[in-house]
UniProtKB/TrEMBL annotation:
Similarity comment: Belongs to the amidase family.
Keyword Mitochondrion: no
InterPro entries: Amidase_dom, AS_sf
Organism: Aspergillus cavernicola
Xref: Pfam families: Amidase
Protein name: Amidase
Length: 548
């Protein structure tokens, strides 16, 4: 088998699936650095299309449930915008608008006959990452060897959303090997960041991030095993959450490393608002069949409101491995200033262990079976390995073959120690707060960079750490922080840490190069406190982004 014919067939099918009425001309976007405005200026969308796709998911489901908008009309608008988005940034793997419109008409008829929506997402079109099974479509995970393996049943997440009323119209790109890599594969090519084509949209849910940023889907149910929700959220200026892993049913999700159970994948939304983050998280964690899913713990959703109260946050600026770039540090410090001015307390937080060693444990557990499965899939289709993937394997010296049981046991013991130490450190903050209670959350970077150029391997320790200990976290943009050479000059006095990640991270930074990228922060809460996490993030969002 050769990967080239598979790639050609998939790309031709995708191109054919885009109707002529939604096709862009190169003159409509050539030479434009930030293409987020192109869908509204290219002339292919009506005013009605632009209005509909400009609404967030929470507003849309209210209007759909009341019959103020038809599902058919909403689905058509998002399909049109998704088609345009794909032509701009290459974010889709398969596109099936007619199937989606047929389902939309069925839902419109149901609402007309009964006067009731079928669920909280009634009639809402949603794209799905290429890690979820939809019957009749391939789930490739970025590998050409999987291109002809059509799913016969739907993943639990897909079933949950469908029963809640969602409509599916496309699947989105992800990188070869799936992990926190640039969203590039031999099968689908490279996905671009809508804000700057010289940058990636984050991974592994990069297709989701790029599509949502271009408003081609109101939100997506993305996945995260090392930062794959949080990086695309940060690098596309979106909101997102990585819930506690076991809160969400995940049966039927594809992964090369799905056999390892110690670092659990989580599923959560990428969206334009925290209201949308809460909406999808509530749906995913409230599914009636979750109690029977072997990959989740049925914890009922709770309504939590932190507005009006005084909160206490830990601030964690630097992990001792890679120093964040100047705009990330500025965003944290401005956030601290605004929160303190609003009456909230901020205290320094220090990790009680070596973060480099923790990242090694994370990687060793994730690749406990070595990389032979990934290499076997590449070999099956004679695929070359992506440069970023090879860099990651080299940086962490990932073995080809599985480790033995004794080695795995030592890694699990180390993971348990990290979890215990982190829990104790969180508890200990109660002695430093004005309330006498532990902190409500930790504010920290998502990444040391506000986005990364193509083929660059960034440091992911600020996200993988929370997968290792399984603490939920949100991402929100700091909208007032814009990167400029005046406000964010390179710190020429900083001496990089003695590791390749920090040295390369500092060397590559140029504020002019990063000028178009958004700046975001991460907020972390304790396990199974996902509702509290969203509530405290709402408070921070109101303070720093002036949201209502």
């Amino acid at each position: 088998m050769s990967w080239q014919p598979a790639a050609q067939k998939i790309r031709e099918a995708l191109n054919t699936s885009i109707p002529e009425k939604w096709r862009l001309q190169p003159s409509q976007h050539d030479g434009i650095r930030d293409v987020t405005g192109v869908p509204e200026t290219c002339g292919l969308l009506s005013k009605d299309d632009i209005f509909i796709t400009g609404l967030d998911a929470s507003t849309l489901v209210e209007k759909l449930a009341r019959g103020e908008l038809s599902s058919t009309r909403v689905t058509e608008a998002f399909c049109a915008r998704a088609a345009i988005a794909h032509q701009l940034v290459n974010c889709l793997t398969v596109f099936f608008p007619e199937t989606a419109l047929e389902r939309a008409r069925e839902l419109d008829e149901h609402l007309k006959k009964t006067g009731k929506p079928i669920g909280p997402l009634h009639g809402l079109p949603i794209a799905l990452k290429d890690t979820y099974d939809i019957p009749g479509y391939a789930t490739t995970w970025g590998y050409a060897a999987n291109a002809t393996h059509l799913a016969t049943r739907e993943s639990a997440t897909v079933k949950t959303l469908r029963q809640a009323g969602a409509i599916f119209f496309a699947k989105t790109t992800m990188p070869q090997a799936g992990m926190l890599l640039e969203t590039t594969s031999n099968l689908y090519g490279r996905t671009l960041n809508p804000l700057d084509p010289a940058f990636g949209p984050g991974g592994s849910s990069g297709g989701d991030g790029a599509l949502v940023a271009l408003k081609g889907s109101p939100m997506t149910p993305s996945t995260d095993i090392g930062g794959s929700i949080r990086a695309p959220a940060a690098f596309n200026g979106l909101y997102g959450i990585r819930p506690t892993a076991d809160r969400v049913p995940k049966r039927g999700m594809k992964s090369v490393e799905s056999g390892q159970l110690n670092i659990r994948v989580s599923c959560g939304p990428l969206a334009h608002s925290l209201a949308d983050v809460k909406l999808m998280t509530r749906v995913l964690t409230s599914w009636s069949q979750a109690r029977y899913d072997p990959n989740s713990v049925p914890v009922p959703w709770r309504e939590v409101d932190k507005m009006g109260g005084k909160l206490v946050f830990g601030i964690w600026e630097f992990d001792g491995v890679v120093m964040p770039h100047p705009p990330i540090l500025r965003a944290m410090r401005e956030t601290v200033r605004k929160l303190e001015a609003a009456g909230h307390q901020i205290i320094p937080f220090k990790m009680p262990f070596d973060c480099w060693e923790a990242s090694r444990v994370y990687m060793d557990i994730y690749y406990q079976c070595g990389n032979e499965d990934s290499m076997a899939l590449l070999k099956e289709a004679n695929e070359p390995i992506m440069p970023a993937y090879q860099k990651m394997l080299d940086a962490y010296n990932v073995p080809q073959t599985p480790i033995n049981a004794k080695q795995l046991l030592k890694l699990i013991q180390a993971q348990s120690k990290y979890r215990g130490a982190f829990c104790d450190a969180w508890d200990a903050t109660g002695g430093l707060t004005s309330t006498g209670q532990p902190i409500d959350g930790i504010i920290c970077p998502v990444s040391p960079l506000a986005g990364y150029p193509h083929d660059f391997l960034p440091w992911w320790g600020y996200t993988t750490l929370f997968n290792l200990v399984d603490y939920p976290s949100t991402v929100l943009p700091v909208k007032d922080v814009k990167i400029t050479a005046v406000t964010d000059p390179k710190d020429v006095s900083y001496v990089p840490q003695d590791n390749v990640f920090d040295r390369e991270c500092q060397e590559i930074y140029d504020p002019v190069r990063w000028a178009n990228m958004p700046v975001s922060l991460q907020i972390v809460a304790r396990p199974f406190d996902d509702e509290e996490l969203i509530a405290v993030t709402e408070v921070v969002d109101q303070v720093i982004n002036h949201t209502s």
